[in-house]
């Protein structure tokens, strides 16, 4: 996988403004004013959108500082600031990752994206790798969905789908799925425990409402409860693996695009998955 520092078209190919002209197409300065404006706006979208998406996760102050540092670096090299300088400044983590790590993270985030759409939980806004120490997916959970036990199972499967994608393709999982209170494993465990203890879906005493301040302590002490929670997690992981296995080619294509482009917008992700997904869902 190599860094791509130019915008991508709908097929994941490099594009420049000249890629959209043919011998029969007039130059932009020969077009009527209205067409010229539309052409310029389209070109600005191609150029600026990747930069905006690369800036995800940064505050305005962060972006201002990064651009200032990039300008200072260009000045020391006695040249003008260019597109590549800005893109590199906005996504430093993307440039320092090994190809092996980049591929693993791309698989992980692509697994989440495919599960979000495959389980009909919502839509993808952006997906990226190299922000901070890992990947990032921004999604919109479908509003007004019936949040029954089936919905919880699908949500658990989505949460564990990144780990499942790693296991399916690489045969192992990285430690990025766990380790913190905001990790995939932590969030999945929290939801599965809630299902058993306070959402009315427990296999034992479903009408009993229980809320624990220290969930880890409770799971360590109540081995039967821990087993029921783990059974839910294993079932959800199996759901995710089945979906991803049925759509392995889609998973690999999305992961390849993400590993190359580093940032994909939701429209491209939705289009790729929606066009190619096996609709025979688990």
What's the gyration radius in Å?
Answer: 22 Å
- Under CATH, the homologous superfamily of the largest domain reads Peptidase M41
Shape: elongated
**Percent strand:** 5-15%
Largest sheet: 3 strands, antiparallel
Q: What CATH architecture of the largest domain would you give?
A: Up-down Bundle
The CATH class name of the largest domain reads: Mainly Alpha
Mean pLDDT: 79
Task: Please describe the topology of this protein.
Layout: H1 33-54, H2 60-76, H3 83-90, H4 92-96, H5 99-118, E1 122-131, E2 134-141, H6 149-170, H7 184-197, H8 215-221, H9 223-246, H10 248-261, E3 263-265, H11 266-276
Antiparallel strand pairs: 1-2, 1-3
Helix pairs in contact: 2-3, 5-6, 5-10, 5-11, 6-7, 6-9, 7-9
Describe the structure.
58% of the residues lie in helices and 7% in strands. It is mostly helical. The chain folds into two domains: 80 residues, no CATH class; 174 residues, Methane Monooxygenase Hydroxylase, Chain G, domain 1, CATH 1.20.58. It starts with 32 loop residues before the first helix and ends in a 6-residue tail after the last helix. The N terminus is likely disordered.
Write out key terms for the chains shown.
single chain, 282 residues, mainly alpha, 2 domains, 3-stranded antiparallel sheet, disordered N terminus
Summarize the structure.
Helix content is 58%, strand content 7%. It is mostly helical. A three-stranded antiparallel sheet has the order 2-1-3, sandwiched between helices.
């Amino acid at each position: 996988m190599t860094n791509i520092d130019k915008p991508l078209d709908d097929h994941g190919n490099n594009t420049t403004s000249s890629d959209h002209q043919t011998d029969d197409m007039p130059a932009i300065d020969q077009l009527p004013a209205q067409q010229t404006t539309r052409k310029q706006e389209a070109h600005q979208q191609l150029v600026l959108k990747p930069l905006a998406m690369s800036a995800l996760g940064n505050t305005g102050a962060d972006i201002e500082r990064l651009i200032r540092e990039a300008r200072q670096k260009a000045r020391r090299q006695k040249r003008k600031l260019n597109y590549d300088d800005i893109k590199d400044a906005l996504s430093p983590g993307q440039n320092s990752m090994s190809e092996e790590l980049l591929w693993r993270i791309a698989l992980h985030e692509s697994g989440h994206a495919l599960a979000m759409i495959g389980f009909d939980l919502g839509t993808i806004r952006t997906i990226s790798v190299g922000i901070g120490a890992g990947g990032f997916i921004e999604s919109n959970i479908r509003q007004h969905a019936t949040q029954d036990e089936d919905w919880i199972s699908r949500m658990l499967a989505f949460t564990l789908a990144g780990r499942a994608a790693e296991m399916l393709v690489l045969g192992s999982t990285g430690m990025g799925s766990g380790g913190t209170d905001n990790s995939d494993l932590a969030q999945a465990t929290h939801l599965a425990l809630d299902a058993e203890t306070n959402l009315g879906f427990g296999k034992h005493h479903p009408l009993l409402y229980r809320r624990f301040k220290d969930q880890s302590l409770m799971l360590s002490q109540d081995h039967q409860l821990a087993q029921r929670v783990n059974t839910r997690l294993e079932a959800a992981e199996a759901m995710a693996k089945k979906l991803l296995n049925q759509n392995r080619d889609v998973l690999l294509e999305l992961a390849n695009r993400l590993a190359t482009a580093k940032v994909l917008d939701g429209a491209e992700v939705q289009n790729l998955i929606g066009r190619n997904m096996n609709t025979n869902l688990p």
